[in-house]
């Protein structure tokens, strides 16, 4: 996000959006990141925010995303104009995504997070509750008398378990807590 903030002030809206260049760059960025081995590659998405699409750009999806469709496309059409909605709907459907039109500021909060529900749906249905541990870090706001405390954070998703909502994959939120590494070390048997 820092990268986007740094360059946002330099952007001016004019002419037509070159979505082919933007999509190509997005796929290349994901590919480069995948080569680092740091990502899981299990949930990848491109969020395309635009005021229109003159094409379906199927040649780009054919080159980078088909037939596996590992990257899901979530197009957001900004404004009341719906002339380009069909192209964006096609992109979403052809790439396991979800199309959203945002006509007013009131629509933003309600609709932008829809991608989370779509991505989390398989995990809810399969009742997967992945636990994620961060790398250890120093919390300089805490002291234990011997200096700053080494911490880790554990987090997991919280899904709706109601039978009537289970097939819709409702992600309620994320729960997490910080854990001092010293507390983890206390749980290890002394002989280990």
UniProtKB/TrEMBL annotation:
Gene3D superfamilies: von Willebrand factor, type A domain. The lineage of its organism: Eukaryota, Metazoa, Chordata, Craniata, Vertebrata. It comes from the Eukaryota. PANTHER family: VOLTAGE-DEPENDENT CALCIUM CHANNEL SUBUNIT ALPHA-2/DELTA-RELATED, VOLTAGE-DEPENDENT CALCIUM CHANNEL SUBUNIT ALPHA-2_DELTA-3. InterPro entries: Ca_channel_alpha-2/delta, vWFA_dom_sf. This is Voltage-dependent calcium channel subunit alpha-2/delta-3. Signal peptide: none annotated.
């Amino acid at each position: 996000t820092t990268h986007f903030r740094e360059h946002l002030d330099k952007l001016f809206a004019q002419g037509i959006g070159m979505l082919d260049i933007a999509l190509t760059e997005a796929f290349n960025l994901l590919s480069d990141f995948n080569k680092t081995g740091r990502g899981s590659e299990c949930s990848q998405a491109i969020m395309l925010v635009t005021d229109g699409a003159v094409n379906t750009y199927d040649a780009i999806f054919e080159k980078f995303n088909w037939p596996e469709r590992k990257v899901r496309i979530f197009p957001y059409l900004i404004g009341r104009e719906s002339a380009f909605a069909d192209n964006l709907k096609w992109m979403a459907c052809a790439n396991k995504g979800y199309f959203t039109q945002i006509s007013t500021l009131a629509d933003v909060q309600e609709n932008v997070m829809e991608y989370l529900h779509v991505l989390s749906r398989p995990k809810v249905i399969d009742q997967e509750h992945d636990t994620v541990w961060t790398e250890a870090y120093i919390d300089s706001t805490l002291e234990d008398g011997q200096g700053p405390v080494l911490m880790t954070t554990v987090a997991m998703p919280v899904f709706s378990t109601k039978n009537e909502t289970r097939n819709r994959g409702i992600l309620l939120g994320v729960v997490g807590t910080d854990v001092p590494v010293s507390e983890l070390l206390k749980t290890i048997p002394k002989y280990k």
